[in-house]
Amino acid sequence: MTAPNICAVVAGPCEVWVDTGTSRALEFLGWSLGGINIEELAYHSPIHSDENGGVQGPPVDFQLFGHQHRISMELSKFQESVLAKLDPRYNPETTAGSVGVGMLLGCATATFRLLLKAPNFVRNYLATVILEPIELAPVGSQASRARIAFTANVVTGGTLWDTTTT
Question: How much is the pTM?
């Protein structure tokens, strides 16, 4: 067997868009620095059986409980006004009556659409949340960078992301 001749995968410069605008219109957040990191997670639970020694032995199978993506990025060029709209951790277009302690981000449609758009790569995450701190550093005489991470869960119908750009 001979390995095929393949080329490196290069997405190209990645634009980051989020739906923080009026009527959930996409707004340009900025450009990534060093690319976007996408961590694709799957949740499982082991199934044990006496045929392999019960709970002390190895599982006989695994159940799949869903998928999640964590999308983290560092932005070297970004719009401060758009970044500020992400700060509350819920979409600014959320109905005011839904906002408050204990709100359900998904049920209140307080999630963010996140579009990653590069010449050779497109991912449109339909519903993301921001669970981790938003970092702005360094703040001083050097150019500031924004670090942010989005978490995407599967939405109704089993879709985590698609390639829609409009």
Answer: 0.89
